[in-house]
Amino acid sequence: MPQPPNATPATLHPRNRHHGRYDFAQLVHTAPELAAFVMATPSGDASLDFADPAAVKALNRALLKQFYGMRQWDIPAGYLCPPIPGRADYIHYLADLLADGNAGVVPTGKAVRVLDVGVGANCIYPIIGHYEYGWRFVGTDVDTTALRVGKQLVASNLTLTGALELRHQPDRNSIFSGILKPREVFDATMCNPPFHSSAAEAEASNRRKERNLGTNRQARPTPNFGGQGTELWYPGGEATFLWRMAEESALFRESCYWFTTLVSKKETLPGLYKSLQKLGATEVRTIPMAQGHKISRIVAWTFLDAAQQQAWREKRG
């Protein structure tokens, strides 16, 4: 049975670097190009037009430079430009999960290997995970353009040397198959799955987001955080994608200690729990997260029994 979640946190993870309001003065000092997008609110505070994709990208570039040492960072127009504080939270909660199996100490360094399913052109999770904890990542994607941009990102930032290997997933219907090599092991996997079921559903969501942001500039909305089709939707939506992930994880049950994923919709949880129980997961945990009014959660599962977990710790320690 899944472990019940603790109370939903009211704020970001304690180790998250992004508590409180953005310091736009410091960010502009770090990345002067951000100044073109900073504006004053009616109360006199500095802010951005978060409905503007160019402003969101400039903010991300400044945050990654100031907090994570990225000298160069860019993504093609229309690709997912994720909100960094929430992505950092996933990394920190994953670190806590790994610490639970390491006498309460977060394991750091290149011996810790993490598989990022759907790494995208932005490579956000490997950037943050390597900077904060020194982990090594393998990032997968079905989009060859995203992988090409990701390789350029690695080549342009010495801090990522040896930290991120990118692999193409040629089959959109596969998650781990065709990616994991024989006898290859990972301490954890992570994923931000596509949660819409179709392009039409994704577009409708973007329209709602524009209304909430108080802007409706175009007949066809442009999502402020971007996103290609494979990043935003999957036939059957989040529930089908995660069902497939669970099924495939069972095929590689001894290749990974913790399989994890974000789950955006609470309605997805019962079906995922049921699938994992049928597949023989020995432990399932639900880790709540919150960023402002947005509530999400990480679901983590393992197929290793107590003896196998102990053997893993001894071998990988």
Automatic annotation (TrEMBL):
Record localization: Cytoplasm
GO molecular function, one term: 23S rRNA (adenine(1618)-N(6))-methyltransferase activity
A Pfam family it matches: Methyltransf_10
Catalyzed reactions per annotation: adenosine(1618) in 23S rRNA + S-adenosyl-L-methionine = N(6)-methyladenosine(1618) in 23S rRNA + S-adenosyl-L-homocysteine + H(+)
Region of interest (Disordered), ranges: 198-229
Top enzyme class: transferase
Top-rank lineage group of the source organism: Bacteria
The protein's Enzyme Commission number: 2.1.1.181
UniProt keywords, alphabetically: Cytoplasm, Methyltransferase, rRNA processing, S-adenosyl-L-methionine, Transferase
SUPFAM superfamilies hit by this protein: S-adenosyl-L-methionine-dependent methyltransferases
NCBIfam families: PRK11727.1
Entry similarity comment: Belongs to the methyltransferase superfamily. METTL16/RlmF family.
Function (record text): Specifically methylates the adenine in position 1618 of 23S rRNA.
Identification of the protein by name: Ribosomal RNA large subunit methyltransferase F
Taxonomic source organism: Hymenobacter defluvii
Organism phylogeny: Bacteria, Pseudomonadati, Bacteroidota, Cytophagia, Cytophagales
